[in-house]
Amino acid sequence: xxxxxxxxxxxxxxxxxxxxxxxxxxxxxxxxxxxxxxxxxxxxxxxxxxxxxxxxxxxxxxxxxxxxxxxxxxxxxxxxxxxxxxxxxxxx
Length: 92
What we know:
The protein is an alpha+beta fold and 92 residues long.
């Protein structure tokens, strides 16, 4: 069994409209590598030049922000749900 990644609307152009993808990996970094193999270009949108999560991309593992867990080293197990949530700015 694999983990499920929820793909936000802004990234669905890369995934050809796919809203959810199943991935297998021991940690978040490995899951991103697998996402990249399925959807080339998604890794560049998620990670900066240093290989860290971009500041405007939030990733949640079962509702917990990975920045408050182990970041890219956060363990992922079968049945987990990863949500990619781009930051929203603006307003008045």
